[in-house]
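chain below, 488 aa
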Amino acid sequence: MSGEMGKPLISCRLVDSDCSLAEAPSEAPKVGILGSGDFARSLATRLVASGISVVVGSRNPKRTVGLFPSAAQVTFQEEAVGSPEIIFVAVFREHYSSLCGLSDQLAGKILVDVSNPTEQEHLQHCESNAEYLASLFPTCTVVKAFNVISAWTLQAGPRDGNRQVPICSDQPEAKRTVSELAHAMGFTPMDMGSLASAREVEAKPLRLLPGWKVPTILALGLFIFFYVYNFVRDVLQPYVQEGKNKFYKLPLSVVNTTLPCVAYVLLSLVYLPGVLAATLQLWRGTKYQRFPDWLDHWLQHRKQIGLLSFFCASLHAIYSVCLPVRHSYRYDLVNLAIKQVLTNKSHLWVEENVWRMEIYLSLGILALGTLSLLAVTSLPSIANSLSWREFNFVQSSLGFVALVLSTLHTLTYGWTRAFEDSRYKFYLPPTFTLTLLVPCVIILAKGLFFLPCLNRRLAKIRRGWEKDSAVQFTLPMDHALAQKTSHV
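prediction:
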């Protein structure tokens, strides 16, 4: 393991901003690291690979020397802080006081705090770790940085992880120095202001998918609602009114009936806020008024809602493939064959049902394929390689196509069932009729927006026209080009 740790990742070269490799300067800068844990080891590996001289301070250098790259100098803490002007403090908050004996040697140097508190510590302490470190070493300049970068990202390189490094300090010159160092390591520094922002920076790693909380709760709520609804219709009603035990459907069949409902409704909720936003702009006659907070937050969560829709649709496809494997399906098939023999029917073929199933499955596959394109292009690595026009075409135009295909898929599945009295169990309508409400409203509204009177007005508003403005505004002659470039 120590041999692998000692291998430089970029072999004495620096990473430029365009991810190209450049030769390291002849006189490599030197930095110090106080600490010998996993993060300190990964940090030393990245610094050495970036052509930077590293000296590591440890309480027991003989025991830890084999864990660090061979190019890094491992020595006692007192010796490690002598020559470097930048010192990384890679120890936990409770061990800061053990460094107080080095106060004289650390005077005037830049201390880079890379620590992160636990959730309990973050709530317990009013001041951040960086501010606490600055209070212990008033003669030093403390910079908060690199705490959001994982040890794995440092080991594997910034291309395989988050590139952004929030940096905050009370001294602009110290921030500039650490920013240059982060850039040399292949990362993108972000100025977060003074050291008072360190508490906010330290809270970033404590957040567990903050942008996914509301969409996940929404998806879970929809799943519970439709699962209970399908349970009442498909399991409880046959048991109460007909005495049939169909509780075996709970683990797979009811789940498979619920998943497409959730996926379909979530997909419609991706495009509903856009319709509401366009309606508000038409009503107000301007794009310069803020949307309501609830609509603004809804617009910001569309990506997560769309990915959850794709997740549920993918599970539905997998569940559907597994349906014929069930023993209950085999028993029903055998019972159907026996019933056919007893009724002396040699040929059982309903042309309408055959065509309906063929079209239904084909539309479902097309909808899932289109939805997969939306999911793939929403990934940052793919989205960054697309122009705005390409990204807008995939997410807006193809997204609407996916919604239309899903609607046709649902309508083909329902066919005439919505008009059959036997389908209304406990007077509850079939589940697919509930899911069609919002998508049909969206498709109808989109169709209205294609009307020339509304389309031209919306295009003018998005290019800066205002209803009550005295400024005369005319669209370019190429109205189609104006539409494609009017999403400001």
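Residues 253-284 form the longest helix (32 residues). The chain is about 55% helix and 10% strand.
thats it, cya
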